[in-house]
Protein 1
Amino acid sequence: EESWFTTRPDGTLLGVQVTPVASAAVYVPGGRAQYPSTVLMDAIPAKVAGVPRVVMVTPPQRDGSLSAYTLAAAALAGVDEVYAIGAVAYGTESIPACDKIVGPGNAYVAAAKRYVSGDVGIDMVAGPSEVCVLADATADPVVVAADLMAQAEHDPLASCYLVTCDATLPDRVL
């Protein structure tokens, strides 16, 4: 979106000034699996919008390290800072606070975003992942399974449903 301005005959200036926030934090899940695509989906639009400071926050893996895939995606997307902690809402002595926090997450992430909302901008408080695939006898069971698994992998509490009138499709999808 671009800024626009117009001047009325009486000299009144009207318009919209589009200005990026000074800093944005991108939360990238990483506890159970790595999601480098989340880095790209959230950091690249921030960079394109002109956000000068893009910070990535991601939990460490079981061994305490950060995912090499997630870090590689952060480098490609132009992320400026990476932390394995979530201090970006209020900042610390060494980490400045961010203006906005975006990104997906589980129920704990949603609760944390709800808690800091109002003190810092957030994208939304997202609910649990769900998908419902409606498929007939012509559906490719591999594609249906992939669609269901794409949501199921995000959270053990994710709900995935297949609705079909073909009695053989569920077994083929399974």
Protein 2
Amino acid sequence: VEVYSLSNNKVEFVLKGTCSDGQFKISACNTDYKITLYDLNLTNPNGAAIYIGADVTSKAFIYAPEGTANVLTGCLNENSENKATLKGSADMIFCGRGQTKVLSQYKHAIDTNGEIYFRGGCKLNIVTEDNHLSDTDELPGDGVHANGNIVMTGGEVEITSVGDGVQSGDESVVLKGGYLKVTTTGEKAHALKAAKDVNVVDGALHAIVKGAASKGISTDGGFVMSGGTV
């Protein structure tokens, strides 16, 4: 399913049901919108399950209603298109109290050129798996990757990744609330990685790193902890 143009305010897309080989794609949009995951089980073996095109600069509110269980699966082979199972081009805001699992085997699980926010009672299980057949294959990517800031203000997010758990390519990672658990297994994989700062203001971070030369927190800027638990 592809949306070519969206200009009306307060538009909501409700995605539900099961599809083993499909994609929901937004190609053009100039207003903020809401994507509701309502007991959705969507798989795209060859790319992103949800793909927001490069021309879309408006915010995506990704909402899972309480009581729902959702699974997004993508990038299951080495020739998969896109960079993630949930791929965006602008800001993503995760909210709602439903359960959402995002799984990738060859790319990132969640990736956007904008910023990522986890807020409220959101509950996410984010996984990149190593399902490669040879040592020459590209390793799976990060659990959560953004070029902008990655900010958590609430909810529960559990990430199991081969690459970095949470990485901001150009900005900072900020933990203001909620519970974030990150387990990484790859060589030189970090639980949190930022081009600028990592700031822990409140909430809790539980980091487990298993690979050679891996780090719990890696930053090219500074690390400031003013509250919370690590």
